[in-house]
Structures
1.
Amino acid sequence: MQQDDCTWAYLGNGKEGNESKRYLFWTSLNTNEVGPGKNIPIIIQTGDGKFYVSESTTAKRTKDNGYIAIADHLSQAGYKDILNNGTEYATLEEAYEAYMKALADEKYDDVCRP
């Protein structure tokens, strides 16, 4: 999953004992090229080792010279909403395969560049 121009974010509760409340959001898309307010497919890995494919909406950040984030500022409930709208997979390989199928969906044609 290491690729040029991919985007990721580590979200959630970093305190010990809260592993299931940690989330790594990843997309192969460069969100700065995608732009703000766009729906994109993502893979989520939770701190307890589960994998999901879901969808997130990109958001503009003004701090640090501005950039486009993989998701807006989210509460714990917001992470769960994105997770619950996705599909769980047993392995990263299965999740990546499902992600690639999602990426090919025509609804993402405006964010996926050849």
2.
Amino acid sequence: MEKIQTTLLARQFIKKGVKEGGFVIDATIGRGFDTEYLCRLVGEKGKVIGFDIQEEAITSTRERLTNEKIQTPVELILDSHANMNTYVENESVDGIMFNFGYLPNGDHKVATQAESSIQAIENGLSLLKKGGVMSLCIYHGKDTGFEERDAILNYLKTISHKNYTVIVTELYNRPNHPPIFAGIVRDK
């Protein structure tokens, strides 16, 4: 069995709700690993939109997709994930992936913030189709993220249980503040 990591949980969760030909969002593209995964998941007939506030992330992701010869239609947008609802219609998305924190091997002073992250989750919920899924990897260790972690976890408790199912999983016996996985399914 593969070692369980938060990113693995997120990918397995997304895979349950997203099929070939689907429409997905990578809300925080970072270095493009999840963007590439989503492209492979939806295939050439699907569509991926990715967001990041750093040009470095857009460039890095574009290079990754080119090097991997990805043929999926991809739109990379230099904008906050909090604004994704201005680019996408409500109830049109099969899956959304988030990684909260800072750009891997990037400037730790530039990181996601609680207010815009919660706005992004809220906007993302309205974009999901019935049966759509959202994964959240909440990185909060080292020098950043504790306030954002707490705010996101508190927000998740307020999401309507009549319309959504929210799952939160921790790697409980791992040291040094391991990331937290949360998964959301739109039931209605």
